[in-house]
Specification:
The protein has one helix spanning 40-44, and strands spanning 9-18, 22-26, 34-38, 54-58, 66-71. By secondary structure, the chain is mostly beta strands. It has a single domain (4-71), classed as Nucleic acid-binding proteins (OB fold (Dihydrolipoamide Acetyltransferase, E2P)), CATH 2.40.50. The longest helix has 5 residues, at 40-44. The termini are far apart. The mean pLDDT is 89.
Length: 76
């Protein structure tokens, strides 16, 4: 089991925005979406996350909510 300092971020897509800063994020195709919340620095800097955004999430090793740690920019 990895220590908390070695948490791996996985990429996903926001499929639903819920009240109180919660989001449903689809991490893998064909699996049910997971419940995620905004990380502290994203909340502090007021970074907006919208439905359809690609994000990086850190999964809770105990099966709780995931934490959104990064919003990926769309570059064309």
């Amino acid at each position: 089991m990895p220590s908390p300092n070695e948490q791996q971020a996985v990429d996903g897509v926001v499929v639903e925005a819920l009240p109180d800063g919660l989001f449903r994020v689809e991490v893998k195709e064909g699996e049910p979406p997971i419940l995620a919340y905004l990380g502290g620095k994203m909340r502090y800097h007021k970074i907006r996350v919208l439905v359809g955004d690609k994000v990086s999430v850190v999964l809770d090793p105990y099966g709780g909510r995931a934490r959104i740690v990064r919003r990926h920019l769309e570059r064309s």
